[in-house]
Write a structure and sequence with these properties.
homodimer, alpha/beta, ten-stranded mixed beta sheet, four-stranded mixed beta sheet, 15 strands, globular, Carboh/pur_kinase_PfkB_CS (chains A, B), PfkB_dom (chains A, B), Tagatose/fructose_Pkinase (chains A, B), kinase (chains A, B), nucleotide-binding (chains A, B)
């Protein structure tokens, strides 16, 4: 079983407007709400692929109830850790020009004992692969406390990423900006090597439309999609993590894992909301992704 | 007692961000929620002034519960008409550059009987002044059905305004754009005369920073603030309506009513959220508002 952990779950609200203009009054023509937060999105994608997955998340207040109700409706198995604060909302504003604007609430502070309750819920499940995703709310401990001996993926940024490396995650998945921010290095291969030295087993860097760069103990690869897609990129990173989790659970070779991860990322861009994937694209694109071994250094003569 | 009616109440959410840029991801640094909708804001302002006021509103779902809880906490007396749909949210995004951007959800459709229940709730209260404010949700009837023989104020726009005139409201309060939209006339005095012919006793036009124009059965006046204020203009129109309601309840002369309305509108611009007023500004500004009789037509020789 794959277990995802979302310490700072959210109710994702998607607004459709004609245009978004600073200083104007906008009539929202369509409102959609669903359970969100990175780990919840990963679980939703894995559930859509028929994988055995369980989401562990915090939830509180009326917003938390809406999150749990949505997971129940979709059929994603979940362990909910109740919290005293009100679960945050994230609002995505889709405008007719194709722009995607996000407004992310910070989320409530965890009270005494709530982080420990989350850690207990994680320990109570024997995960084949553990996925820890997203920001940590105020009052949380470190992701390192959640990572055990099972294969694991850590998808977060900044201090939460750096502190989490002490737990020796099998894979971390920063994007290029997040990788540069935590290492101060512009070269992603050199930066990934730093994170491996600090505890990460492998580093998979998402490069947006250019695909993925994977720096692992058994080689370095670049995987590129066959075409550049336009759509809602919000859940693309979570789809990459879902594919990585599936690949780790089967102990697939890295080039196969990366091929599926790039294809699933594109399938998420084509999905209408974060956590949706276009399964036809996922199937068709897997054979078209170009995976090349990456030679990072020019040898000195 | 002044009674306000809000058929399409809302939970007002105010987000503070550094900047609002279309296509970007924004971290919201501050989230505030409160009961809203125009009639609720009018009641909140009147309550702050110590007036005897009661808000009648629809509320449904978790958002509706949050609206009612907030009114209870503030101490605004309310008659709540439960509805099956989920009360809408309106989101105001305040950016550091002073811009105010609104995202207004449309609100739920009223089910069979819910409009009738609202009308019964209005009839059950013997209002000295009845204030009907804001948009009508789908499934609603006409404001004309709510207006009885008591003095009344109708503050809405478009078809809801035009249809409401059949109920012969004592005062309607369009802004200049709304007035032009419903009459097709650019001259506000001529446009106001049209609305009076169609059933309005008086027309008070809000002109933004230029104050108010009142076209009444006993004269036409222009009331201008002493200074142009910058701040959150969202609740300024509701503050004008609150002052008009107070003036009607006391049968004050129009120049006095307008002086207070302009002062209270400025006090709302200085308040941090819609429905808040700066009482010191309200007191000080009343003596500074310039009210002049308005001579609208050049007599033909």
């Amino acid at each position: 079983m794959i277990v995802t952990v979302t310490p700072n779950a959210a109710l994702d609200v998607t607004y459709t407007v004609d245009d978004l203009r600073r200083g104007d009054v906008h009539r929202v023509s369509d409102v959609r709400t669903r359970a969100g937060g990175k780990g919840v999105n990963v679980a939703r994608v894995l559930h859509a692929l028929g994988a055995d997955v369980r989401a562990i998340l915090t939830a509180g207040g009326a917003t938390g109830t809406a999150v749990v109700d949505d997971l129940t409706a979709v059929g994603v198995a979940a362990d909910v850790v109740p919290i005293g604060g009100e679960t945050r909302r994230t609002t995505t504003v889709l405008a007719a020009d194709g722009s995607v604007t996000l407004l992310n609430e910070p989320g409530p502070r965890l009270a005494d004992g709530e982080w420990q309750a989350l850690a207990s819920a994680v320990r109570a499940r024997s995960a084949d692969v553990l996925v820890c995703s997203g920001s940590l709310p105020p009052g949380a401990g470190s992701y390192a406390e959640l990572l055990g001996s099972s294969p694991s993926i850590l998808d977060t940024s900044g201090d939460a990423l750096l502190a989490g490396l002490a737990g020796r995650p099998s894979v971390v998945k920063p994007n290029a900006d997040e990788l540069r921010e935590v290492t101060g290095l512009r070269d992603p291969v050199a930066a990934a090597a730093e994170l491996r030295k600090a505890g990460a087993g492998a580093v998979v860097v998402s490069l947006g439309a250019e695909g993925l760069l994977a720096v692992t103990g058994s080689g370095t690869w670049h995987a590129a999609p066959s075409t550049v897609l336009s759509g809602n990129t919000t859940g693309a990173g979570d789809a990459v993590v879902a594919a990585l989790a599936l690949g780790l659970s089967r102990a697939d070779p890295w080039p196969d894992i990366l091929r599926r991860a790039v294809a699933l990322s594109g399938a998420a861009v084509l999905g209408p909301l974060a956590g949706d994937v276009d399964l036809a694209h996922y199937q068709a694109e897997q054979g078209l992704v170009a995976v090349r071994a990456h030679l990072s250094r020019v040898r000195q003569p």
